[in-house]
Fold:
Amino acid sequence: MTEQDKIDPRIFDLYDEYCHGHIDRREFLNRAAVMTVGGVSALWMAQALMPRYAEAQTISFTDPRMTGTYVEYPSPGGTSGTMRGYLVQPTGEGPFPAVLVIHENRGLNPHIEDVARRAAVAGFLALAPDGLSPVGGYPGNDDDGRELQRGLVPAELDQDMINSANYLKSHELSNGRLGATGFCWGGGMTNRLAVELGSDLQAGVPFYGVSAASDDVPRIDASLMVIYADSDPRINAMWPEYERALQSNNVSHEMHMFDGTLHGFHNNSTPRYNEAAAALAWNRTVGFFRNHLVV
Structure:
């Protein structure tokens, strides 16, 4: 039995509310504490869902296959006019196909930095922008990060991500072909970038993110590979309309829904992680980007 199998589905539902900012950490733990499973408080289940980033690292900061550094760049129209991100390049001289890696609704945490390193090891110049950098950066824990991101002006935060994409595409190590991927909030932002960047974005892989508005879909030029979890009703309910809009506007796309998975299944720092599905989704993501970004 996996750790995920030991956790009551009601706790996963509560955790989903917590992750999306509908309840805070205190309420999440308090509501879990009054639930019982087999006569025992479910508080331990809630505590088990908290991320364990150190244990979840897959690519070391010192891995010889890549080099990572923090960079600053202008972001006109964004939160402060300046952005900071984690830029990771593969070994070699380049140029490399470029991939923007967009965080969830809590800033650039260690998991997303690890995903950027995974992208670099796969041969891509990867940039993971920190939307919280204009207000001090990721604060070291997801609870405070979530509160900080909630306090930002959405349009300015979006512009920071658009500027990050443009910075990466024009970077001297980029081959000029750009892809974007993101998770939860970052998945929705990937769809938004496909709208806003038009032909400047070649490929997008949104993981369980909010769909682009149907009226905006005609502006999409990128090829999309949309990733969904099996059990994610709020996000999955958006797919039929999104699919119709993509089809009617001849947007190249494919969709993969992974059986037996929960929202956040790619994140290996919590028990929502599904190892087999995450590996397959990532392999498909890498292959998709290679097909569309390598020249």
Observations:
- Residues 134 and 198 are 26 Å apart (CA to CA).
- The chain has a mean pLDDT of 90.
- The two ends are 45 Å apart (CA to CA).
